[in-house]
Amino acid sequence: MLLESKKVQYTHPGQKTLAFPDIRLNHGESILVLGKSGSGKTTLLNLLAGLLSPETGTISLAGTKLSELKGQKQDLFRGKEIGIVFQKPHLLSALTVRENLELTHFFSKKEGQNLDKLLAELGLTAKAKSSVLTLSEGEAQRVSIARALANEPKLILADEPTSSLDDENAANVIELLKSQAAKIGAALVIVTHDQRVKSQIPNYIEVESL
Amino acid sequence: MNLFKLSWKYLTFRPLSTGLNVLLLAMGLAIITVLLLMQDQFEKKMTQDAAGIDLVVGAKGSPLQLILSGVYHIDFPTGNISMEEAKKLTRNRLVKSVIPLALGDNYQGFRIVGTNHDYLNLYKAEFAEGKAWEEPFEVVLGSEIAKKSGLKVGETFEGSHGISVGSHDHEDHPYRIVGILSPLGSVVDRLILTSIESVWYTHDEAESEEVVIESDSLATELPVAAAEEPEIHQDKFHSPVAKTGFPETELPREVTTLLLQYRNPIAAVQLPRQINSGTSMQAASPSFEMSRLFELLGVGVSLLQGLAFVLIAISGLGIFIALYNSLKERKYDLAILRAIGASRIQLLFLIFLEGIMLTFLGAVLGILLGHTFLWVVISQNDQGVVSTLQAWIFLKEELWVLGYALGVGLLASIIPAWSAYQTSIAKQLTKA
Q1: Which residues contact B248 (CB under 8 A, 6 or more apart)?
Q2: Which of A47, B312, B315, B372 sits most deeply, having the most CB atoms within 10 A of its CB?
Q3: Long-range CB contacts (< 8 A, 24+ apart) of B154-158?
Q4: CB contact B332 to A (< 8 Å)
Q5: CB contact, 8 Å: A113 with chain B?
Q6: Is the Cβ–Cβ distance between B247 and B241 less than 8 Å?
Q7: Quick check: A108 and B336 CB within 8 A?
Q8: What is the pLDDT of residue B383?
Q9: How close are the terminal C-alpha atoms of chain B, in Å?
């Protein structure tokens, strides 16, 4: 098993405890995490990314238990092995498109993918040296996907990647995530409340607050 | 890509705010640099110019004025003293040596100083060209005058009466240049040296042949000598001048200042009192008067220093505010950096680096500005003391300026850096 989560629970201060269904994924497999707003989908994503630590249960990625890593080691592990696509692109506006991707190599201390090839695959070659402020929303989203892929991670997490996109673009983004994850053999977890995605990724779990 | 480059990108992403902070800091540091440079060079110069002079004797008046005019050649002389009385001093057992000076004329603002060869030895003067004066109206130029006027050995010029530009010329007795000194870095560079006789004879002529209406009332008047026979004139103009001690003369003559060396430490206690109370002359010690002057100037210097520190404090505050504000906009950026593998420590460094780079730029710019400012001041003043300062000498103290600036940068970034360290990524990223 590449990604395995067992009996994971988490409580936000002053709220009910969230209990999440178990996830088991192999190389190249993908899964949707569905649920209403406020059901704790994003909390699950943060747990899987090691940004939050579960109260009970374990999450392991490629044999490493996330909750056992601390501080700097955890940051580095996340940089190397987990790529995250956020709901909004959140690119660093002081940098160009390519520099945004270069950062991932620097901070994770990993060579990762050839950036020029990656940019070409995502149709961003012409924008490589442009400031991210000049990008359209769709382009920015693709850059943020490229950033998640730049290190050839073992796990790709996507948080509502299609929420602000039209049908066509939404389908493209999911297709892109699927094909790229398959190419580098990564597990793909997409958190969404967008029912359109279900037609592309049949495998899903649902998160409900208890 | 690395932390340096990333910090730099963030700085250049906000050019106006960065520029303003750098400029503010640079201004404060420039003032400090100028003060450091001036203080260092003035003090060095003042000590150097007064080396070997224990006491200055001249006409009664302000002791500071006596020192400034007699040693540094910047103020007007206090008046003249009778040579008879001056000569008596040389016989005093407390006195080791006396160098007489006769002031009163200038050439384009450069002072003509009548003295003897001891004065050249006092400043260890060496000749770049030519030799010392032997006859009346032969002169030796300081290096700076030679450079600025372009005069060469063998050429002649006419002196003007008074010690500043604008008085009437002494047309009858042009000075002939017989030597040019090598640069010494002392007051001598700005002086035209000649014999005391030259100064006397110039004024004999001027005042026996025409009635002079002095516009410059402060200029030192040398006395009207009794009318002399023309033959004697010709004779004395070509007889050798005194190379040491006082010139021979039958007439009651005057000199302006005496530079005096003590024979022993007791002289320092007794001699000034003897002269000040026992004669019509005044004695002043260069070291004492100069420390008094620096004390007076100290108020102004402290004021400027205060202003510099206020500027630096404001720029420190500016840097703090700039970093702190940009941090608010950058919380997402920081969270993203953490998400792609940056550690808390790296983010801490990132913010510190930004503050330090900003102040480093300010420090370098400030030091350069300080030197440039001094250079402009110097090039505007081609005759005063200021003109002898050098703008492009770098002092060890300037490293302190740099260190001080970096300290300000560090201090200003502590809180922003800490807040970056504390950023919770999960909260930041899911707030959207």
Answers
A1: B242
A2: B315
A3: B157/B107, B158/B107
A4: yes
A5: no
A6: yes
A7: no
A8: 64
A9: 27
- Could you tell me if A72 lies within 8 Å of chain B, comparing CB atoms? yes
Residue A107 forms contact with B (CB below 8 Å): yes
Q: How far apart are alpha carbons B318 and B16 in whole angstroms?
A: 12
* Helices assigned H by DSSP within chain A: 41-48, 71-81, 97-108, 115-121, 137-149, 167-184
Cα angle, residue B419 at apex, residues B417 and B421 outer, rounded to 5°: 70
* DSSP-based three-state secondary structure for A65: strand
Query: B350 and chain A: CB distance < 8 Å anywhere?
Result: no
Instruction: Give the strands of the sheet with A82-85, arranged side by side.
Output: A82-85, A155-159, A187-192, A30-34, A204-206
- If residue B41 lies in a helix (H) or strand (E), which one and from where to where? helix B15-49
Which two tokens mark B237? 């103009």
Query: Are the Cβ atoms of A106 and B339 closer than 8 angstroms?
Result: no
Contact A92 B333 (CB under 8 A): yes
Nearest to B340 among A71, A95, A104 (CB): A104
- Residue B52, burial from CB neighbour count under 10 angstroms (0-12, 13-18, 19+): middle
Q: What is the DSSP letter of A131?
A: B
Mean predicted confidence (pLDDT) in A95-123? 90
Domains defined along chain A, listed by start: 3-206 (3.40.50.300)
- Of B9, B333, B345, which has the smallest distance from its Cβ to A72's Cβ? B345
By C-alpha distance, the chain B residue nearest A83 is B340
- Give the residue, A82 or A193, on which the prediction is more confident: A82
Which of A75, A111, A156 is the best mutation test for B, with the most CBs of B within 10 A?
Answer: A75
Distance in angstroms (rounded) separating the CA atoms of residues A160 and A157:
10
Selected residue of B336, B343, B348 to mutate for chain A interface (largest A Cβ count, 10 A): B336
Which of left, alpha, beta for B68 (phi over 0: left; psi -120 to 50: alpha)?
A: alpha
Q: Which residues of chain B have pLDDT under 70?
A: 163-167, 205-235, 382-385, 430-432
CA nearest neighbour of A51 among B317, B214, B423, B396:
B423
The answer, for A80 touching chain B at a CB cutoff of 8 Å, is yes
Which helix or strand (DSSP H or E) is residue B262 part of?
strand B257-262
Which residues have a Cβ under 8 Å from the Cβ of B94 and sit 6 or more positions away? B262, B263, B264, B266, B267, B270, B271, B274
Q: Is the model's pLDDT at A170 over the cut of 50?
A: yes
Query: 3-state DSSP call for residue B86?
Result: helix
Q: What percent of chain A has pLDDT over 70?
A: 99
Residue of A nearest to B342 (CA): A107
Q: Are strands A56-61 and A64-65 parallel, antiparallel or unpaired?
A: antiparallel
Beta bridge partners of A156: A83, A188
Distance from CA of B332 to the nearest CA of A (A): 7
Q: Which residue of B has its CA nearest to A51?
A: B426
Contacts B334 to A, Cβ<8 Å: none
What b/e string do you get for A18-39 counting C-beta neighbours within 10 Å, with b at 16 or more? Answer: bbbeebebeeebbbbbbbeeeb
